[in-house]
Amino acid sequence: MAAQPLFTLAVVADIQYADKGDGHFEARTQRFREAPAKLRAAVDAMLAEHAGDGTGGIAGSGGGGCGGLAAALSLGDIVDGYGDAPDAAARAASDLEFIAAELERLEGAGVPLRHVPGNHCFAVPRGALLRRLGFPAGSSGYYSAPLGPGWRLIALDTTDVSLFGHEEGTPNAAEARRWLGAHPTSEHPNAQTWNGGLSAQQFAWLRAELAAAKAEGQRAVVACHHPLAPGSAPAHYLAWDHAAIRAALESAPGTAAFALTGHYHPGGACEVNGIHYVTLEGLVEASTGSNAFAFVDFFADRVEIRGHGAATSRVLPLPAA
């Protein structure tokens, strides 16, 4: 196997910082106040990797990438929010500023920083969030960007149709209410208020992006917050239209090769019709003294994930281009 990857991507999911006591959900603990120190350590490791001081890869892989990190990617939910507290909006905005500044140390070292929106992110209003995180001008939360040689990032917004970041009565919020009303959880376990999906406009954009990538001989890394395939997360964590998104990806065989998501903090992975779906473990639930982030090394014939702390290391073979 090739000793050096074509390029390396740094990834973190569900930082979910808030200045409040631990949370508990599904018998798991969310350590909100520990997030800044863990993120600082993760960014330090990413900066060391970018400078060529990484600790190496999976046994036999030959270590990290050439020429520094191609990008760093946050998979959403970088803050948690404070519910209906009177000062919730101001506190969430302060938390966003704090975490964004920590991540921007990467940009200061020349590492492009990419985000996808998560449901908890909308403790901050959508417009303010997208502006602060540097989404492309005019973006509705989804965009594409170049990665390393022969690859592009297609970043989806699975809160596009949801109850997050959309005022009541707006078309996206109304569509979300209709979707939930038509999909009882007894038949659709993912019909939960913490999930969401893509608008028709975003689906059209996704198909056009895949067609453009195929025409240019590129492969695509697809990234979004909500998991897209059974097996990568329990059914009640999946995006509302996960099957339709997978069908769109499968319509461009050999192009959409790999998908990265967050949202389900314990993580998971599966392969469906030749596409790998990986849910990265959430930093907010990493145990005290541990962490959760990863480096993703891209080769011509495989993707290798070098997990740190709670994040799982994986080797994912790719079909011939």
UniProtKB/TrEMBL annotation:
GO molecular function: 2',3'-cyclic-nucleotide 2'-phosphodiesterase activity; ADP-ribose diphosphatase activity; CDP-glycerol diphosphatase activity; manganese ion binding
One family name in Pfam for this protein: Metallophos
Residue stretches making up the Calcineurin-like phosphoesterase domain: 8-266
Classification via PANTHER family: MANGANESE-DEPENDENT ADP-RIBOSE_CDP-ALCOHOL DIPHOSPHATASE, PTHR16509
Name the record gives this protein: Calcineurin-like phosphoesterase domain-containing protein
Species the sequence originates in: Raphidocelis subcapitata
